[in-house]
């Protein structure tokens, strides 16, 4: 049995213990579907975007999580590149060690990235214009976190931190490839959160050896408005290609409990190219109830310095949470 499989078995066993007779068990998730039209595309898209079913068991000091994720034909996320719909995502256990310390083992989502891995948690339908594989997705390993009143930090050893075709899992290989991740978050200044993280995957002599640095900050300007910004840089340690960067700037304004609108501009520069893509996005959201909301979006992608034409896309998304 591989190390990664052992970790998953341990996590699943811990979840079973955590969901015993005396445990508190919670079930939650979401389903999102949308219609989108993109200029130049052969046809419009009308489909389920994704759905998540999450089971959480808590029997202090141990808790555990298992989740199932549905995304139609998510071949980009498949470890083999073969189209797949249903995936096992979270399979981890967390042990509260006391005094602010906790230990987590199994399969979990990387700390890196301001925007949520799940589009349903973002104020837009589509994500920022960033380079595929820049921000790690799901991975398998162990990590330790410490939490204080104004700050928290963590360090982890995982099986991979850069593999764009396995965003829903790590590569499961530890003998020659592994990665480390760490982060620090500070919230001691009223209404401001500052976050810094890094992921480093050492592969001596391999052009894919690299480090990713991620910095973001969010400020609550008023009850109605918050602004945020993120900057990431990928350092190709082996030197086979130049460094690349991605960035975003976001503002979200809530007119009332029902209506809000997000405005975002984001971009990337790949391998120190002379110019990078820039994406402009405007997305209003109407909250029908605590369980259902409707979101619209219009985006304009400027393909600077590339043969691809600029593109405009519009869409409407329905989101059901439970």
Low-confidence stretches: none
- Describe the main β-sheet briefly: 16 strands, antiparallel, barrel
Q: Termini separation (Å)?
A: 36 Å
Report strand order across the widest sheet: 1-2-3-4-5-6-7-8-9-10-11-12-13-14-15-16
Specify the helix fraction band: under 10%
Rounded Rg:
20 Å
Strand percentage lies at over 45%
Mean pLDDT: 84
Q: Characterize the overall form.
A: globular
**What class, by secondary structure content?**
mainly beta
Number of helices: 1
SSE ordering: HEEEEEEEEEEEEEEEE
Query: Count the strands?
Result: 16
Outline of the structure:
By secondary structure, this protein is mostly beta strands.
Describe the structure in your own words.
By secondary structure, the chain is mostly beta strands. It is 5% helix and 54% strand. The protein is built from 1 helix and 16 strands. The chain has one helix at residues 3-18; strands at residues 24-38, 45-59, 62-70, 86-98, 101-109, 138-147, 151-158, 179-186, 192-201, 210-220, 225-236, 244-254, 259-269, 278-287, 292-302, 311-321. Strands 1-2-3-4-5-6-7-8-9-10-11-12-13-14-15-16 form a 16-stranded antiparallel β-barrel. A hairpin with an 8-residue loop joins strand 9 (192-201) and strand 10 (210-220). The longest helix has 16 residues, at 3-18. The two termini are 36 Å apart.
